[in-house]
TrEMBL record:
The keyword Repeat applies. TPR repeats lie at residues 40-73, 455-488, 489-522, 754-787. One of its GO terms (cellular component) is Ski complex. This is Tetratricopeptide repeat domain 37. InterPro entries: Ski3/TTC37 (IPR039226), TPR-like_helical_dom_sf (IPR011990), TPR_rpt (IPR019734). Keywords: Repeat, TPR repeat. It comes from Salarias fasciatus. PROSITE patterns: TPR (PS50005). The gene is skic3. One of its GO terms (biological process) is RNA catabolic process. It holds the Pfam family TPR_16.
């Protein structure tokens, strides 16, 4: 190649570099170098191209070659600088300053600006590397201003000072530091000034740490004192220097005095003056000054001086105490002085102890000191402590362990109580591996030891046994050591370790707990306790223990254990489909494990656990798998915000963690297995495999390769073969032959391998080999009956062959665990069975659905399924269907809405989902939305049309509803469907006020070939609503003629309408009998029990106890009916007068309190509670006991705060109850205040009642003025429908002697009760009227009017039903009019000797009194004896006493 060609090649290389074609540039340069090996430009171009191709070593070599060729040329040096700047290699960073130095030299003569730029870069390097002196030198070369130099010096001096504290500066650097301070002080302005004062103080502090700079220190202190005379710091430093050197000259005394002038409470000045006084022999002054100084600051030198002064004044006790105060540093001088004080005081034992301490503190460290100890041993060969110190010397200083062992043995032989020598000898023997000698010494000590002694020997022997694995002996020895010292926490830890090695986890836990109690700062005991709890499966408790450790320090084993526990807890939550909580725990586990991995990146197990944690997200729903991971772990800048990764990204991070673990330990087969599974989960996490995206297929291939690698390393591991088989079956590979081979190999490696058998069965099932699949699943079931997958396989086989056991098998899978396939299969079969109405009465239906509680079980399982798999529209439809059956309206609506959202494209599934969605909207009273949903369907299905018609009707669009029903009538295929539609149209016509049209349509329904009971029920109800008893009776008669099986479906409605018809006809006693008959015919129907409990107190209150029982039965049978039945039961208890005075547990108050708790939004329950409280108060009032339930404010306010508006009558009733309760207690003022506070029509009447009561009480029960009676009458007239008001007014008239007005009031209440159909109020009004008329009769008022009135009223009562009270009134009337008649006796005897359990005892007692008087008047001894015998049998003492009075009066 010619010179011209070389230039052309170099030009081509330059152009290639310019076009970023670096490989072409290298080719051109290499061609040049073949001709000219020393071509400078070629080497420079090679360096530049290699640098751009990320080949830093080749680039460096090329640049270095160019520099060797032309050292003064700039290009190569610039290239080197650029290369070193952009490459992050430590060796390049080291060389970079030298390159900059060379560039400074080259730029100095050619380009000043470039030179300054390089100097700036070099300055930054020096600053970052703390080479501040060079930095300052460069700045001076740049001619920087004073301010910048002062700033640099200010940055430099603290760093040097820190190094000085760590003794890292040599003498040269120390001089640099002093020079820096001097320059800074000289350059700093203003002087004096705050910055100058701080730097001067720092300079003095620095010099005080350099003993050789004493002269400069004094100079600096005097300089600062002259500039800042009020500053005490330089004076303090000088005083410290004088005290340290002990040279207390006159200047020192002046310095101490000046310090006290500046700071009178400064302890240093007092110590200086005290020390000077001690030197001059002024001991009293010395003691005074030193004590004052030591109160302000503690100093070992000060304590020594004080102890010496006290010793000189013969205060030996004080001297010893001062020595003890200053012995924190084990100063030998203090120890010696303390010993002398004890000797002079006569305390030789204490002096000996101090001598031992002094000996320890001056352990021989030199040869001369060793000779002194040897001579001491020769002088007294029986002094064991000397040999012990010799042993210490040989062990610690000379490192002659053989001689040290001999000395220890000699010392222990001379003194068997010398624990230190014995322990040292044993420890040294164990360290050298001479266990026999160590055990011999320990056993010799233990044999002689008494119980509770020789702790050191027991403990060391226990540790030996622990080390060799004889855990039982170790436990026994350590327990013996603890008997000697139960507070030794180290021994407790050792005992816990022994228990742990013996696998006695509970005992180990207690031992570590005791150790932690004794030493709360011990991390080891807490860690071991947490590890034990983790082993026992108490992950939550273990995690709490680990958190205690990690909160104090970054302890890697604790962080690892914490991550493992959190991962285990996450897996437990995922088994129950609680994915949200599981993701939180996985996130915490990742952070804790990564924290541990950052501390110990060399531990493969940490990276493996991190991979497990990241891979664990494969189970959860992709929507939930949003994991916040550390930025560094995700491959981002560590300073960046922690990213939130989705499921695929998190699995990818898990892949990198497994790769990191494999990099550390590539020979571990389980890591290859984990990596392979991670690849497989990454592939299966994708929605589906598409031809365009082959990423999933590549992941499957990589997974297969990793599993094959693991099998090559460990071919006997059955899990590896099984995993490879599963991967081979995956979509994309589908190598079924290999999969079968792998499953068989897995079974051969482990015959009891339930997973491999199940997977083999799945493979056969996929290939439609039912028999082999069944056999494989059967074997798996026999190996592990609780393994759910094999049961799912059998269920799928049963489903395929059409077996009746399919549903039962799927149900069994849901009982074993929550598996997605089993859950969906069971839900499907439950829904299919529910949709098939033809088998409702079959044994299979009753077993699968009713007995197995299938609807609730399937709903719970499917809720978990949809929580995890949120893209399955079919599952959401089934969930909505099950929720509808469970009356979970809101949940059903949400499920159907989700299904509609998932099914966007038009299809039959979408139309079905829309219809279900519309039905759920109707159930939730969202009529407009339901109309919109139904209109979104093709409206070809009968259910959709009927649902649309119902939605229109409820929305008030009656014409549209009629049109929809007519369209549905045209679509209906059967007579039954048409009957239902016609019934709906009839109801719609009645809603619009077309009564005749409604009747016509209902009659039309009844003449169809397949009439339905619902139409007759509607016809009957229509008659009852309009008071047409004939129509209602006729419809009911036709209903009873129908097939009993069809009528049975509407038995509740039929019973209710029958009872209503009987009440309308006035046959009240038959109401209760009809409800009782229905209950006896259908004892399992809770609605009928609730109906019976409801009608009893209203129409047959004498059976109220039975009504309470009926309500209780309904409450136990059904929660839906039970809430209301509980109220009915409480009302029955009120009707029967059952209060807490009779039964503390079963009374109206307790029952209605429960009702309020169950239904706090029901005003009826609160009204019942009010009535119960009133009953309790009345009972207490009558019995004379204190009233317990006097405060009615809570029920009143609770009723007022109910969201829905209360009826006016209910509000009035509540107010009347509250006022009546207050009046009953005599709290009339509060009752009147309550009436004035509330604005209600019933308030005026209540107010008048309270005012009337107060007026009667104030006037002593006198006659009320006519004006007052007029006001009361007007108040009652304002509430003409209030039955209680008329009866109360009648009582007021009666109390005033206005009997005719009272009769009129009672008749008014009777008329009102008859109009309202209130049976109990009719009876009450008639009985009160009869009682009112009976009074004049008993008083002998002439005339027949009152007698006729009694007879009339009681006769009407008996027409309404049996009434013992009415019979009593008739008997008393007979007694008054015809006392001696035989008919009178018969009437009274019927009441006295009645055996009915419902007969009131009060009636019998009253009748017996009058019968006694009748018989006594007739002097009939025989019948008298019968009556008296009956009274004795029943315990009627009052009748016997009355008989005695009558007998005595007749004598």
């Amino acid at each position: 190649m010619s010179n011209k060609e070389v230039k052309a090649a170099l030009k081509s290389a330059r152009e290639s570099i310019k076009n970023k074609e670096y490989k072409e540039a290298l080719k051109h340069c290499k061609s040049v170098l073949k001709v000219e090996k020393n071509n400078y430009n070629a080497w420079v171009f090679i360096g530049l191209a290699a640098s751009e191709l990320d080949q830093p070593d080749q680039a460096q070599t090329a640049y270095r070659k160019a520099v060797e060729l032309e050292p003064e040329q700039l290009l190569a040096w610039q290239g080197l600088a650029n290369l070193y700047e952009k490459t992050d290699q430590w060796d390049f960073k080291v060389e970079l300053p030298n390159i900059y130095q060379k560039l400074v030299e080259l730029y100095a003569s050619s380009d000043k600006n470039k030179c300054y730029e390089v100097i700036k870069k070099l300055s930054d390097i020096y600053q970052s590397d703390k080479e501040h002196l060079k930095h300052v030198q460069l700045k001076e070369e740049e001619a920087a201003d004073k301010k910048e130099l002062v700033q640099l010096l200010g940055q430099m001096t603290p760093l040097f000072t820190d190094c000085l504290q760590e003794n890292e500066l040599d003498s040269e650097t120390q001089q640099h530091l002093i020079t820096a301070f001097e320059k800074a002080i000289a350059l700093m302005e203003p002087v004096p000034g705050e910055d100058h004062r701080k730097v001067s103080a720092d300079f003095i502090t620095c010099l005080s740490k350099l003993p050789q700079e004493e002269a400069k220190l004094k100079e600096a202190c005097h300089s600062m004192m002259s500039l800042y005379p009020n500053q005490s710091y330089p004076v303090e430093v000088l005083c410290c220097q004088y005290l340290k050197t002990g040279n207390l000259t006159e200047d020192a005394v002046n310095c101490f005095s000046k310090l006290l002038d500046l700071a009178p409470n400064n302890g240093l000045g007092r110590l200086g003056l005290g020390t000077k006084a001690l030197q001059e022999g002024r001991y009293a002054d010395a003691i005074k000054d030193l004590e004052q100084g030591l109160k302000k600051m503690s100093s070992s030198t000060g304590w020594y001086s004080l102890a010496e002064a006290q010793f000189k004044t013969h205060k030996y006790s004080h001297s010893a105490a001062s020595c003890s105060q200053g012995m924190s540093e084990k100063d030998p001088g203090l120890l010696a002085l303390k010993g002398r004080a004890y000797i002079n005081k006569g305390q030789t034992d204490e002096a000996l102890k101090v001598q031992i301490l002094l000996t320890k503190s001056i352990l021989p460290t030199t040869t001369s000191e060793l000779y002194d100890n040897v001579n001491a041993a020769k002088l007294d060969p029986h002094l064991g402590c000397v040999f012990r110190y010799l042993g210490h010397y040989y062990r610690e200083v000379a490192k002659d362990y053989a001689r040290a062992q001999g000395c220890y043995k000699k010392a222990f032989l001379l003194d068997n109580d010398d624990v230190e020598s014995g322990a040292a000898s044993v420890d040294l023997s164990m360290a050298q591996g001479d266990m026999d000698t160590a055990l011999a010494i320990l056993q010799s000590v233990i044999e002689k030891a008494t119980p509770g002694s020789a702790k050191w020997a027991w403990m060391r022997q226990g540790l030996y046994y622990l080390k060799v694995g004889e855990h039982q002996k170790a436990i026994a020895d350590l327990q013996a050591a603890l008997r000697a010292d139960p507070e030794d926490w180290v021994c407790w830890e050792c005992l816990g370790e022994a228990y742990l090695n013996r696998r006695s986890f509970t005992a180990a836990l207690k031992a570590f707990g005791k150790a932690h109690q004794l030493q709360p700062g011990s991390i080891y005991s807490v860690y071991q306790a947490a590890a034990i709890k983790q082993t026992l499966g108490k992950f939550k408790e273990a995690a709490a223990e680990y958190l205690l450790i990690t909160a104090q320090q970054d302890y890697v084993p604790a962080l690892k254990g914490l991550g493992e526990c959190q991962l285990a807890l996450a897996k437990i939550l995922m088994e129950d489909c609680r994915d949200g909580g599981a993701i939180d725990l996985i996130q915490q586990a990742i952070h804790n494990l990564f924290r541990a991995a950052q501390l110990r990146p060399d531990l493969s197990c940490l990276w493996k656990l991190l991979g497990d944690a990241c891979t664990a997200v494969r189970i959860v729903s992709p929507n939930r798998a949003q994991v916040l991971v550390p930025a560094s772990l995700a491959g981002l800048d560590p300073n960046a915000q922690n990213p939130s990764l989705n499921q695929a990204q998190t699995l990818k991070v898990g892949e990198s963690c497994y790769a990191r673990a494999l990099k550390l330990m590539p020979e571990v087969s389980s890591l290859w297995y984990d990596l392979g599974l991670n690849y497989y989960h990454q592939a299966t996490s994708q929605p589906k495999l598409s031809e365009e995206d082959q990423n999933c297929l590549l992941k499957c291939v990589s997974s297969s390769q990793c599993l094959k690698k693991a099998i090559m390393m460990d071919s006997g591991n059955h899990s590896y073969w099984n995993a490879l088989g599963v991967i081979s079956m995956s979509k994309g590979l589908e190598n079924y032959a290999l999969a079968q081979h792998c499953f068989i190999k897995s079974i051969q490696a482990e015959p009891n391998n339930v997973v491999a058998w199940t997977n083999l069965g799945t493979l056969y099932l996929k290939k439609d080999n039912i028999e082999l699949s069944h056999e494989a699943f059967k074997i798996a079931q026999s190996l592990e009956p609780l393994y759910v997958n094999c049961w799912i396989g059998q269920a799928l086989i049963a489903e395929r062959v059409g077996s009746y056991d399919t549903m039962d098998l799927f149900r069994h899978t849901t009982e074993l665990s929550t598996h997605m396939e089993g859950v969906k299969g069971y839900a499907y079969w439950v829904c299919s069975t529910l949709l098939d109405e033809s088998n409702r009465n079959s044994e299979l239906y009753r077993y699968n659905i009713v007995q197995m509680n299938a609807i609730s079980a399937a709903q719970v399982a499917l809720s978990k399924y949809t929580e995890r798999i949120q893209s399955d529209a079919e599952a959401f439809v089934m969930l909505g269907f099950l929720n509808e059956h469970l009356q979970l309206k809101r949940q059903a609506l949400q499920a159907y809405q989700r299904a509609v959202e998932l099914l966007q494209s038009p299809s039959e599934e979408l139309n079905f989902s829309l219809g279900c969605h519309g039905r759920a909207l109707c159930t939730s009273d969202q009529w407009d939305e339901a109309i919109q949903a139904y209109n979104s369907t093709p409206l070809q299905d009968l259910c959709d049309l009927v649902g649309l018609a119902l939605a229109y009707c409820r929305a008030g669009l009656f014409s549209e509803s009629s049109s929809a029903y007519e369209r549905a009538l045209a679509v209906a295929s059967s007579e039954k469907e048409k009957a239902y539609i016609l019934t709906a149209l009839a109801l719609l016509q009645h809603r619009q006020g077309n009564l005749d049209s409604a009747k016509t349509l209902l009659f039309k329904c009844s003449v169809l070939k397949e009439p339905i009971p619902e139409s007759l029920l509607c016809l009957c109800a229509l008659g009852l609503v309009h008071g047409d008893a004939t129509l209602a009776a006729a419809a009911m008669t036709e209903l009873l003629k129908q097939n009993p099986g069809r009528v049975q479906s509407v038995v509740e409605q039929r019973c209710l309408l029958t009872c209503t018809l009987l009440a309308l006809q006035g046959n009240y006693s038959a109401v209760q009998r009809e409800a009782s008959r229905a209950v006896h015919s259908n004892p399992g129907n809770p609605s009928l029990w609730a109906l019976l409990s409801r009608v009893v107190p209203k129409y047959y209150p004498r059976k109220a106890n039975g009504g309470a029982v009926a309500g209780h039965v309904a409450c136990l049978s059904s929660m839906t009916q039970g809430k209301r039945a509980l109220l009915y039961s409480g009302v029955n208890q009120l009707a029967s007068g059952r209060h807490s005075g009779e039964d503390k547990r079963k009374n109206a108050l307790k029952t209605l309190q429960r009702a309020v708790l169950l239904c706090p939004d029901d005003p009826a329950t609160w009204a019942g509670l009010m009535a119960a409280c009133h009953t309790e108060n009345t009972s207490c009032y009558l019995s004379g006991s204190p009233i317990a339930n006097a405060d009615f404010s809570l029920p009143v306010h609770a009723v007022d705060e109910i969201e829905r508006p209360l009826a006016q009558t209910l509000e009035g009733w509540v107010l009347q109850q509250a006022v009546a309760g207050l009046m009953l207690e005599g709290r009339l003022e509060q009752a009147e205040a309550l009436c004035t506070q509330v604005d209600h029509p019933a308030v005026m009447l209540s107010l008048r009642q309270v005012q009337c009561q107060r007026l009667l009480m104030d006037d002593g029960g006198t006659v009320l003025p006519e004006a007052v009676l007029e006001q009361l009458n007007n108040a009652v007239m304002m509430n003409p429908t209030n039955l209680g008001a008329w009866q109360w007014l009648a009582e007021v008239y009666r109390s005033q002697g206005l009997l005719l007005q009272a009769v009129m009031a009672y008749r008014q209440s009777l008329q009102l009760a008859s109009q309202l159909g209130v049976h109990s109020c009719q009876v009450a009004s008639l009985l009160r009227l009869a009682l009112l008329a009976l009074g004049p009769c008993m008083a002998g008022v002439p005339g027949n009017d009152w007698t006729s009135l009694v007879q009339e009223a009681t006769t009407e009562v008996l027409k309404l039903g049996s009434s013992p009270v009415a019979l009593l009134f008739q008997a008393l009337l007979q007694y008054v009019t015809k006392m001696a008649a035989r008919e009178t006796r018969r009437s009274l005897e019927k009441l006295v000797y009645a055996r009915s359990p419902d007969f009131p005892g009060t009636v019998a007692q009253v009748a017996s009194w009058y019968l006694l008087r009748h018989l006594h008047a007739k002097n009939d001894e025989e019948l008298l004896n019968v009556l008296l015998q009956h009274a004795k049998m029943n315990g009627d003492q009052r009748l016997l006493e009355f008989h005695s009075l009558l007998a005595s009066s007749s004598v």
